[in-house]
Design a protein that fits this description.
CATH architecture: Alpha-Beta Barrel
Number of helices: 16
Largest sheet: 5 strands, parallel
Number of strands: 10
Number of domains: 1
Radius of gyration: 21 Å
Strand content: 5-15%
Structural class: alpha/beta
Order of helices and strands: HEHEHHEHEEHEEHEHEHHEHHHHHH
Shape: globular
Bound molecules: manganese (II) ion
């Protein structure tokens, strides 16, 4: 392989960071039940320990997304403990994720609830989350709103838009310098008739209304089948409105499978769109993982995800963009497509391995994880705590 390719891959991997979610290390599962893993993290300290492992193995995930309700049940009072864990395990707090879907009072919505009192409670939780972000020095407060309705005629979609605008604007007003509010969208589930923030257009409009520090978050699993996600990415880049990603894969709906496991070419197409942006545009895009592993081992699945992301990003970095631009301009379709595709079909694994060795990282992170005995060790330590946490759907 040409030295030029090596340089491209090294530069891409040096800049590539992807955030791991704290909830990806805990026993989470499907709506129907979860299969308890003896080695799953049972506390915020264990989540930080596992995140530290993934970063040590891959060199690409120095931050961990936190979930306010699950990871900081004491709110801002838990910040010193989080800071202690950051130092101990060598990973920083990443995006702060408020929870507006678990409390019983959110049965009919949170920021779009007809009750002004409940909307007020949702806003208070959002502002607490902003304050936690400030205290931890993390840039992004990441919002996924589960609000919606299950039956036609049961709610006023239009009034709910106004209520959301009001709450999101007030949240934006509380942001500090350098802080951002990321607005995620999803077409359905848990609501099955209408979802209040159903697609990127709605998320974009709400973000624009809220203010300049609000951006759109694209969760790859939150689209209808066949949606051209890379086109949405191109539009959001054009509009300077792309805040970041929640990466995962799926076959049917929001399946939270490991990235690239079903359709690696789609991830490649998204990364290619991002790598065709300017370095400045790229620098503000947050790459995050949002996955829940019910069958695969938690640690193994997370390392596999980060490694796959690195490989697909390296492939996208190999595209000869100058050549491609010329071919597109001249409408030389087959040559353009082959130029685009040939980078995808290049086996970059030897180059990525070279990069790992050059950076003092394990040559094969998954193999290193297996040989380290870490999973066996934590399974031993955590087994009895996890055995108690078994739960059923009903
Ligand atoms: Mn998500």
């Amino acid at each position: 392989m040409a030295g030029q390719d090596l340089d491209k891959v090294f530069a891409a991997l040096d800049s590539f960071r992807i955030e791991v979610p704290s909830w990806g290390f805990a026993n989470t599962g499907t709506r129907f039940g979860k299969f308890i893993q003896g080695g799953a993290a049972t506390s915020i300290e264990e989540k930080f320990a596992d995140a530290g492992q993934v970063n040590a193995l891959t060199g690409a995930s120095p931050t961990v997304a936190l979930h306010v309700l699950w990871d900081l049940p004491g709110g801002k009072g838990d910040v010193p403990e989080i800071q202690r864990l950051e130092k101990k395990y060598g990973v920083k707090s990443g995006s702060i994720n408020p929870n507006l879907f678990q409390d019983q009072e959110y049965k009919y919505g949170s920021i779009a609830n007809p009750s002004a009192e409940i909307r007020g409670n949702a806003l208070a939780h959002l502002i607490d989350s902003v304050e936690i972000g400030k205290a931890l020095g993390s840039a992004d407060v990441s919002l996924w709103i589960a609000d919606g309705s299950n039956y036609p005629g049961t709610q006023s979609v239009r009034r709910r838009i106004e209520w959301m605008q009001e709450v999101l604007k007030s949240t934006h007003d509380a942001l500090g310098v350098g802080q951002r509010m990321l607005v995620e969208y999803k077409p359905f589930e848990p609501a099955f008739y209408h979802t209040d923030i159903a697609d990127w257009g709605m998320a974009l409009e709400l973000a624009r209304y809220a203010g300049p520090q609000a951006k759109v978050l694209v969760d790859t699993g939150h689209h209808y089948q066949g949606t051209n996600i890379e086109q949405i990415v191109a539009w959001l880049l054009h509009l300077n409105a792309l805040g970041g990603f929640h990466f995962n894969d799926r076959k049917y709906a929001d399946d939270d499978l490991t990235l690239g496991s079903i359709d690696p070419y789609q991830v490649y197409r998204i990364f290619s769109e991002i790598l065709s942006a300017t370095e400045q545009e790229r620098s503000s895009i947050a790459f995050m993982i949002d996955q829940s592993h019910n069958l695969k081992g938690k640690l193994e699945a997370m390392v596999q995800t980060v490694v796959t992301a690195q490989e697909l990003y390296a492939k996208a970095a190999l595209v000869d963009r100058e050549k491609l631009t010329g071919l597109q301009q001249e409408c030389r379709l087959v040559e353009a497509e082959e130029t685009f595709r040939s980078a995808f079909w290049t086996d970059v694994r030897p180059l990525v391995k070279e990069w790992r060795i050059a950076r003092g990282l394990p040559a094969d992170p998954l193999q290193q994880l297996a040989e380290s005995g870490y999973v066996a060790k934590v399974t031993e330590e955590r087994g009895s705590k996890n055995a108690k946490s078994a739960s059923s759907y009903a």
